[in-house]
Amino acid sequence: MTQTEISRVTKADEASSFGEYEAVAKALQPYIDSAKTGSSKLARTAFFDHAHIVGSVGGEFYNMDADTFAGVVESGGPAPDIKHHIAWIDISGSAAAAKVEFINWGGNRFTDFFVLYKHDSQWKISGKVYDSHSNN
Q1: CATH for 32
Q2: pTM of the prediction?
Q3: Which residues of 47-66 are buried (b: 16+ CB within 10 A; e: fewer)?
Q4: What are the C-alpha distances in Å from 41 to residues 4, 45, 70, 119?
Q5: DSSP track, the chain
Q6: d(CA 130, CA 113)
Q7: Contact status, residue 55 vs residue 130, Cβ threshold 8 Å
Q8: Residue 9: pLDDT over 80
Q9: Per-residue pLDDT tens for 18-42?
Q10: Domain span including residue 65
Q11: What is the C-alpha separation between 67 and 75, in angstroms, rounded?
Q12: Residue 119 pairs with which residues in a beta bridge?
């Protein structure tokens, strides 16, 4: 961005940009809440139908669609003591990426990387890649 382009950014542009970060964080919330509650229905609402999830736990590689992942959340049950932190969100137009850290989800620590897309004014997760840290 040139100095001239920077000086053309208005307060309305800044507010809109800030609002998109809040919207992405809000789109991640059903996923975060599903970890706490063990709700497959809540987990499923966070993802597009085509979403894909890849990672490993205990050395076992998982390559799942969103429905299968929602079943894994349900079978794992609630994790009421889970803690999370949204480390960052990066947005470019209707595409976004986010990194969320979890600890004490089924006794594990996870780092989740999400790719999100805004369709019909709504952000949803299109894909997730994760690391289960020492339990990998």
Answers
A1: 3.10.450.50
A2: 0.87
A3: beeebbbebebeeeeeebeb
A4: 48, 6, 7, 20
A5: --HHHHHT--HHHHHHHHHHHHHHHHHHHHHHHHHHH--HHHHHHTEEEEEEEEEEETTEEEEEEHHHHHHHHHHH---TT-EEEEEEEEEETTEEEEEEEEEEETTEEEEEEEEEEEETTEEEEEEEEEE-GGG-
A6: 6
A7: yes
A8: no
A9: 799 999 999 999 999 999 999 999 9
A10: 3-135
A11: 13
A12: 122
Q: Which amino acid is at 39?
A: S
Counted domains in the chain:
1
CA–CA separation, 125 vs 2, rounded Å? 32
pLDDT tens-digit profile of 94-124? 999 999 999 999 999 999 999 999 999 999 9
